Amino acid sequence: MEKTALSRRSMLCGVLVALAVPGGLAACGSETTPPATGTAPAGGTTPGGTSSGPAIIAALADVPDGGGTLAGNPSNSKPLVLVRTGETVKAYDATCPHQGTAVSPPEGGVITCPNHGSTFNAADGAVTNGPATKGLTEVPVKVEAGQILLA
Asked: CA torsion, points 19, 105, 148, 49, in degrees to nearest 10?
């Protein structure tokens, strides 16, 4: 019976850790696991962010030049639309100001809301066609060492 209780406790610990910290099941094991040997990108910045630097949003190479993509905002988990021109990236809150639907990535310099068809200029986030009455909110970002970071 003691072994069953220990097994249940280990399983419960594993479930709780998996829910709270994906990839963190090793914290419940009885065996020791060597620390990760990978290195952080330049400046000590890591995905999710640390006290040594801002959080990485995406790699510059993952955003098509002359286009864009959707990504998560590591500071609040809201979606961002990233727009790239060469080495310059702009980011906007991807929530349409009309009714809160996530917009689509830019195509041909236009960001479109799939819900009601509002369109926005990818260069500045300004509304170009309603029903939205205001543009997308810009989120300050910067590019360092090939990574897009919150500014």
From this structure: -20
The single-letter DSSP state of residue 25 is G
DSSP category for residue 146: T
Q: For the segment 44-89, what is each residue's pLDDT rounded down to a tens digit?
A: 334 444 445 778 899 999 999 999 999 998 888 889 999 999 999 9
End-to-end CA distance of the chain: 55
Close Cβ partners of 118 (under 8 Å, ≥ 6 residues apart)? 96, 98, 112, 127, 129, 130, 131, 132
Using CA of residue 124, residue 67, residue 86, residue 76, what is the dihedral sign? positive
Distance CA 115, CA 142 (A): 30
Joined together, the tokens standing for residue 78 give: 């809201």
Q: pTM of the prediction?
A: 0.65
Residue 22 CB partners (closer than 8 Å, separation 6+):
none
Checking if the pLDDT of 148 tops 50, the result is yes
Nearest to 69 by CA among 42, 44, 89, 53: 89
Structure tokens that stand for 7 in this block: 């097994």
Instruction: Read off the pLDDT of residues 108-141 as tens digits, 9 standing for 90 and up.
Output: 999 999 999 999 999 999 999 999 999 999 999 9
